[in-house]
Amino acid sequence: MKTFNALLLISVACGWASRPVSAADQPAFPPISSVSGSPRLSGKFVWADLVTDDTAAAREFYSGLFGWTFRDLGGYLVAANEERPLGGMFQRPRPADRPQAKPRWFGYISVANVEKTRQKVVKAGGQVLASPRKLRGRGEQAIFADAEGALFGIIKSSSGDPPDFEADPGDWIWIQLLSRDTKKASEFYGAVCGYDVTVNPANERLSDYVLVSEGYARATIRAIPSSNQDLRPTWLPFVRVKNLPESVGLAKQLGGQVLVEPRPDLFEGRVAVLADPTGAAIGVLEWSPAALKEKR
Q1: pTM score over 0.85
Q2: Fewer Cβ within 10 Å of end Cβ, the chain: N or C?
Q3: HEC-encoded secondary structure of 33-81
C-alpha cells in the first residue's frame, strides 16, 4: 500500500518532505467520527497528527503511557483510545538543512467550508502550507501556518465530528496555543475560524485568551515567557490522565522527558508537559470535576 497523499502534504508543511509521492491508489482514511449522523462542530479540534523521525519509539511510548492502540495503514499509524480513533503519526527523516524542524504534534480544527477558511487565513496574514485536498473516507482538509508560524490544520469531515463529551483518561482533553503576541493570535483565529474570543480575567491565569464556539471553550492562548527565546509559537495538545505523578514517572521510564514539572501554581499541580523519546512535546492533565466542586 502506498503512503497517503496527506503524508506528503503534512511533511511539506513541516519542512520534512524529501521526494514526491504518487497520488495514485490513495487508500481510505478512517473517519473522524464513527457515530452515525454526527453533526459538524465548527471550531472544535477533532484530530491531531504527529510527524516524527521514529514512529517505532513514539508508538511504544504512547502505547505504554496512555494505553493507545495503533493500526498501520501503509506508513500512517492511526492511534485509538478504547477503540476511538483520535490521531495519527508518520515518519520522516529530519532534514539536515533545517535543524529547527523538530517532531511535533498539531491539531485540526473543524470548519464548514475549507476553501473559504483558506481565503480567511491568507487575508489574516497566515500561510498556506498544504492547499485544500479531498481525502477518501476522511473529507476535505488543508494545513496552514498562522501569522506567527504555528502549524495547524482544518478539516471538513465527511462523517461529521465526534460529539462533545467528557474526556476519558487517554483522550485529548485540551489544546493550547503558545504565542509571543496573544492578542494578535486571538484576533487571527477569531477571524479565521469565527471564534468568540474571551479574555481570561483571573490574576493567576494559565492563559490570556479563550477561544469559544458552539458555547464550548475549544482552546486557550498563552504568552510564551520573554525569558524563553528558544520556544517557537506552537500548538500544544493535552491528554487526560488518571494520576499525574504516576504518569510523569512512567513517561520517564519509557524514555520521555519532563519539560514542565507539576507545580502548585499551574492548575493546582495537576498539569505537566512532557517530551516523547523523539522530542515531540505533549501535555498531560489530571482532571477531576468532583475535586473542583469540593473546592468551590
Answers
A1: yes
A2: C
A3: CCCCCCCCCCCCEEEEEEEECCHHHHHHHHHHHHCCEEEECCCEEEEEE
Domains along the chain with CATH numbers: 5-19+39-157 (3.10.180.10), 172-295 (3.10.180.10)
Which helix (H) or strand (E) segment holds residue 120: the answer is helix 114-123
128, β-bridge pairs: 144
**pLDDT, tens digit, for every residue of 190-246?**
999 999 999 887 655 667 899 999 899 999 999 998 888 788 899 999 999 999 999
Q: How far apart are CA 44 and CA 217, in angstroms?
A: 9
Which set of grid coordinates corresponds to residue 3? 503512503
The 8-class DSSP code of residue 149 comes to: -
Whether 166 and 32 have beta carbons less than 8 Å apart is answered as: no
The answer to whether 176 touches 224, Cβ cutoff 8 Å, is no
